Amino acid sequence: MTYARILNFSQPVPARSDSPRTGRRRLSADGRYLNLPNEPVPGGIEPWEAVTPVRPDTSHSRSLRFLDATGELLAAIAIIGGGMVLTGLASLL
Fold first, then answer.
1. Contact 76, 70 (CB under 8 A)
2. Are 54 and 60 in contact (CB under 8 A)?
3. pTM passes above 0.70
């Protein structure tokens, strides 16, 4: 009968296992292509363009931002005013 090995958790854990790594193999590559400079690809995006939003500044985009801000302000006034009206009505009961 075989028994499961009980680990001793008071001992430090080894950083690497003794088994060979079978999952990782280095692909053979031609040495001429390993030290090429990292040149940008034509038509590719730069790293800063991938994270920085580029917002067009046209009259259409400004009007949408204005309407959005105005709508949020009106919604806040309606919510606060409605809460005040309901609180006033509740005090009459």
1. no
2. no
3. no
